[in-house]
Amino acid sequence: MKVSNFFFNTLREAPSDAALKSHIYLLRGGFIKQSSTGIYSIMPIGLRVLRKIEDIIRTEMNEVGGLEMDLPLVQTAELWSESGRYQIIGEELLRFKDRTGHPMVLAMTHEEAVTDLVRSVLSSYKQLPFMLYQFKIKYRDEARARGGLIRVREFIMKDAYSFHSTQEDLDQYYQRVYDAYVRIFRRVGIEPVVVQSDTGIMGGKVAHEFMLDTPNGEDYLILCNHCGLQANREIATFARKPYQGKDLPLEKVATPSKQSIEEVSTFLGIPAEATAKCVFFDVDGKLVTALVPGHLEISEVKLRNLLKAKLLVPADDALIRKSGMIPGYGSPIGCTQTRVIIDEALASAKDVVVGANEEGFHYAHCVPARDFTPGYEVADLAQADSGCGCPSCGKDLTSTRGIELGNIFKLGTKFSESMGAKFLDESSKQQPAIMGCYGIGVGRLMASVIEQSHDDWGPIWPKSIAPFQVLVVSLAKDEPVMQAADKLYKDLQDAGVDVLYDDRPERAGVKFKDADLWGIPCRISVGAKGLAEGKVEWKLRKQKDFELISLQEIVDKTLGWITE
């Protein structure tokens, strides 16, 4: 491909609304163009990267016995009602009516569609197991689209679904896909961090996320550097260290205009862990009061799963006061008409500060087991953080941030049971198929590679997914240089090299800046000075300096580099 015939656009300045490096370089390099919030057109050079990522994924999915298929983006609301998700999922599921007034959706995932397909074919255990996968545009009406391709509304995903006759068979296959995912991410240049995760709207009981460890990530990961435990902070369990102060009677103390944990602990001269954080939620019109140690945050995922709630809404002041508690000074001491759930760490804590349910006052020396109104529940509610104890080895945990690259779920029979995807077992008894689900966001993976691999001038693509393996640059307009560059381009093509040839009559500086923005891993420059000695400049994108290679050796050197 010659640049003079290519459709592209590069930008010299970073767009004002782009913060992440991947967002900046995908726009500046002409890989994508924003159409609207969270929706992007993929330019030809960007599509070449996406297709190479897809080829790697496709190879690994075929290796574990996957069969590629294609499911519709537009689906009937009845299909989603069968699984129950039409009623459960909020505004992120785009609902609309077709011209006949029939309720429809734009699919954000395809569990319903694949289960509907399978139930039309599956009849006997002899057909199991099998796995179906696809590369498909999906739509999620994301409220917080950000970061270019990291969080979007319209996106390409590889999603796969396996069907099994026994849990043991699913467990074995799940591990095979797990291993395939590790290979996929390593092949694109990423060593993934694999964490236990919440199953969310997908259902099931076991799930893992494959993450890129990066300071720009929107997810928080909890890691143990001693035993190797890894989990998403939303669901991470940890060993509690309950605060143990003095055993004293409850005492009301004045805390004028002090409401936040930081304000109260500073005013009283105590550590944040010696306080209890009280958070109120409105769940279907009823008040839920949740408490965690003051230095930790509540995991809304843990609480939502415990309550089996569709949505957690912050309670308004009227609902809180109706229970006898005062916003900013609330606690479960003397409260009524609320469901109280406290974190495990508070169940055995002693001498903590809690709200006194009176403006400007808190209680000191509270022992929840002694002082809270009876009837409260104890659960794992807090988000783990650095310094918390590892539940496996007891050592201190650390936290980091990450971008989710892919996820896998053991769905079980959530969809097959509700939608009737069943088979006759060896005893001629009808059983629901046991399902697994496996997803990778292709565009997000492309962006994540840049987050990990870039410099101050642009992305640095690995050979496996670079838009082109080699860029040939002609540095002069005179005929001998052009002829030599033309011949090198043709020789590389004939040798099977994926090569882009910058034949434009532009200055060398312009070509080199574009080359850096494209991130092509190898650049070969043909100039008059080197050509006079029968040599060309060879430079790898990730290296600072170039070397001079003879024209007779350059193709062999390139082939050797590609295969190394």
What does this structure look like?
With 564 residues, this protein is of the alpha+beta class. It folds into three domains: 272 residues, Bira Bifunctional Protein, Domain 2 (BirA Bifunctional Protein, domain 2), CATH 3.30.930; 129 residues, YbaK protein (Alpha-Beta Complex); 94 residues, Rossmann fold. It is built from 17 helices and 31 strands. A hairpin with a 2-residue loop joins β14 and β15. The model has no long low-confidence stretch (mean pLDDT 93).
Quick structural summary:
The protein is an alpha+beta fold. The chain is 28% helix and 29% strand.
What labels describe this entry?
3 domains, single chain, 9-stranded mixed β-sheet, YbaK protein, BirA Bifunctional Protein, domain 2, alpha+beta, Rossmann fold, 31 strands, 564 residues
